[in-house]
Amino acid sequence: MTPAEKAARIGEQLDALYPKPPIPLDHTDPFTLLIAVMLSAQTTDKKVNQVTPALFSEGPTPAAMAALSVERILTLIKEVGLAPTKAKNVKRTAELLVERHAGEVPQTLDELEALPGVGHKTAQVVMAQAFEIPAFPVDTHIHRLAERWGLSSGKNVETTEKDLKAVFPEDTWIRRHLQIIYFGREHCPAQRHDPQVCPICSWAAPPKDDSESETTASKDVKTSKNAKDAKDAKTSKNAKASKDTKASKGTKTSKDASATKASKDPKASKDASATKASKDAKASKDAKASKDAKASKDASTTKASKAAKAEKGRAS
Ligand code: SF4
């Protein structure tokens, strides 16, 4: 199944589960959405929705918000995470909207990202949800699930955004973003669970080792790191055994052949290498034993012959 085919099937499941995913942050226009998204960093949407009614009643527009003091804004949003920094950013952003954009929220990524407290993800959320301009904001849920479902390497959020934009049709980006967030929140528990019962991972997740059932992001990273470390260590150990044995035999041809095979098939080579190392070691041991035996035999033959000669000399 190609990534695009997989994405299409995942898309069908998400559409069935969340036909019209609502925007989780309460707002009335692009400005209130922008402020709500700014407040949502490291805070639950629920908490943001609890503080914004009071904030927006005192600062419903950029001009009104800019007129509030930082201290007043801080008082109104003090329950959200990073409130002091957010209070300053909210005031300065409101001022800049008045100064630079005639009190309107701009509709380009560059202009949005130039506002304090507005990063790439926040800017994309505003573009998508306030103006319906196709964008695919990637948060931690989306980043993790895209990797789980084999739609992206999971290297970083920038790569994930690019990969998801490539496999999902542009006219689905806005709802896919929300659908994956809802799916992650509702279906992906923080504790161990069985991926085989998951409606999507059960068929879409590339096979991993037995630790698959550990689902937290940190565990994913740890598992993958440990597996890689163990593999590297084993490969290195086998390579060393093979190298030592070969050195004792001094067979360059065999070494070259082994290197070529390793580059073609690392796993097969790893197993073969271990077996060969053991065989080579045995052969080397046998050869040495046989050589020692011969040397001993020759020495004793020579000694006997010398003794016979001496005896013969004495007799004559
Ligand atoms: S298997 Fe677990 S982590 Fe994967 S999508 Fe399903 S619930 Fe989420």
Describe this structure as you would to a colleague.
With 316 residues, the chain is mostly helical. The protein has two domains: 3-187, Hypothetical protein, domain 2 (Endonuclease III, domain 1); 220-309, no CATH class. It is built from 15 helices and no strands. The N and C termini lie far apart (96 Å). Bound molecules: iron/sulfur cluster. Iron/sulfur cluster binds at residues 145, 148, 187-188, 193, 195, 198, 200-201, 215.
Q: Fraction of residues in helices?
A: over 70%
For the termini, the CA-CA separation is: 96 Å
- Going by CATH, the architecture of the largest domain would be Orthogonal Bundle
In the CATH hierarchy, the third-tier topology of the largest domain is known as Endonuclease III, domain 1
Mean pLDDT: 76
SSE order in H/E notation?
HHHHHHHHHHHHHHH
- Outline the biggest β-sheet: none
How many extended strands? Answer: 0
Question: What general form does the structure show?
Answer: elongated
At the fourth level of CATH, the homologous superfamily of the largest domain is Hypothetical protein, domain 2
> What is the top-level CATH class of the largest domain?
Mainly Alpha
Topology:
Elements: H1 3-17, H2 30-39, H3 45-58, H4 62-67, H5 70-77, H6 83-101, H7 109-113, H8 120-131, H9 140-148, H10 157-167, H11 173-187, H12 201-204, H13 217-249, H14 252-264, H15 266-315
The structure holds iron/sulfur cluster (SF4).
